[in-house]
Amino acid sequence: MRKKYLNFLIIPEDSSRNIKFRLSFWKAWMILGLLVFWVLVLIILTLLHGKAVSDLIFSKSLRQENERLKKYNAKVVELEKELQEYRRFTQRVAELAGIEHPFPADLQKTETNLASFQKEANPLSEGETDLYSSTPEIASKLSERVQPEGEEDATIEPESLRHIPKGQPIEGWITRGFSLNEYIFGGQHTGVDFAAKEGTEVKVTADGMVSFVGWDDVYGNLVVVDHQNGYVTYYGHNFKILINSDDFVKRGEVIALSGNSGRSSAPHLHYEIRKDDIPIDPKDFLNPK
Questions:
Q1: Whole-model pTM?
Q2: Helix (H) or strand (E) run with residue 34 in it
Q3: Where do the TM regions start and end (predicted)?
């Protein structure tokens, strides 16, 4: 069979010699196939590159969102801890006042496991709003219970309440609050700092036994009081300590003079409350209703 060819003629503009050549059909098809193949390869590589760039941008966006959610979750966990401490404190006061079930039924359930708390929710739910609204009633009944009829100026405090921290330990103003959030500026701070001039009287906030008196590399001259009910208070950075270890102290008793000892940049008192060896926010105990 006679082979078929494709003839090509190229005529230059300058009228020079014409270029003429021919290709057999199978060579022409082979060249065309190679061209189509390389075009497809280029298209595929372009698509893959675009997808890789898109995935990289999406991955970066996910990392940023993950960091934002971590910070948000830390704030939610911290707030939930504060609410739980408030519920436990109010429950204890309610029991002393003889009030049963001061919380709504939904708050009697097992507390949320904070380590796995991930939901984005309004920090003050309807149940917790009811909790705050019920506090005046609890306080009113407690007042009726501890104040004898006909003695308006008398204040009789049950012995068990005298072992719960109450009021400020020093005359001063708060310069740094409580926080367990490691993402905020300054990191975690397990107590509150009161600015006061050196030599200001430091008073114990509840009855208890002095469990530690001495030097601490962070808190300087430190006093620790065990209130024998799970509560322990810390008084740090003192100039001078006025009591001894194993002394029994009563609320309002002067135990030290404030100073600037330990890891401190200015005269102040570091005041800390722990419940069952867990730091809790002292703010609910500074000015109780």
A1: 0.47
A2: helix 25-97
A3: 25-48
